[in-house]
Design brief:
This protein has 144 residues and is of the alpha+beta class. It has two domains: 2-80, Beta Polymerase, domain 2 (2-Layer Sandwich), CATH 3.30.460; 82-128, no CATH class. The chain has helices spanning 2-13, 22-26, 44-53, 85-93, 96-103, 116-122, and strands at 18-21, 34-39, 57-61, 66-69, 74-80, 137-138, 141-142. The strands form two sheets. A five-stranded mixed sheet has the order 1-2-5-4-3, sandwiched between helices. A two-stranded antiparallel sheet has the order 6-7. Helix 4 packs across helix 6. The radius of gyration is 16 Å and the shape is globular. It comes from Acidithiobacillus sulfurivorans. This is SAM-dependent methyltransferase.
Length: 144
């Protein structure tokens, strides 16, 4: 998606670590919006200034880290400090019911887990690719 590349390029030029997350990362189509995870936490006022002045967006939701492109593409930004990156990437990649099962496992949110692999290791699982995190397969077991 061309607009996704533009957002990632803008983030790199801003010195940000930004990665795709959500349905786009799971390769679920159609994607209701683009979602990105940003390393580092900025206050709401900073996000409002950044999104309000970025030429990629024609509007934004104050205080919500959400914007709309000129093509009408909704974009949502999540943010997290580096030690929790792995858990945040799992949580925001979803799907929600699969993540809920992960949250119930011992070790969830035990830091540091700077990568997804480290977060999966904390909860006792091998790394599961985002595209395999489907509602019909929860933690590697088919639901009946």
């Amino acid at each position: 998606m061309a607009f996704e590349a533009e957002v990632l390029s803008w983030a790199r030029a801003s010195g940000w670590r930004l990665e795709r997350t959500g349905p786009l990362r799971r390769k679920v189509w159609p994607v209701p919006r683009l979602e990105f995870l940003r390393e580092g936490v900025l206050p709401s006022e900073s996000w409002d200034l950044i999104l309000g002045s970025c030429a990629l967006f024609v509007s934004y939701e104050p205080g919500r880290r959400e914007a709309i492109s000129s093509e009408g593409i909704p974009v949502k930004f999540y943010q997290v400090e580096k030690p929790a990156w792995g858990f945040a990437q799992i949580a925001h990649s979803g799907p929600a019911n699969w993540v809920d099962c992960c949250r119930d496992l011992p070790g969830w949110d035990v830091l540091p887990a700077e990568t997804e692999s480290a977060a999966f290791a904390r909860i006792g699982l091998a790394t599961i690719p985002p595209s395999e995190r489907r509602p019909d397969i929860l933690l590697g077991t088919k639901t009946e």
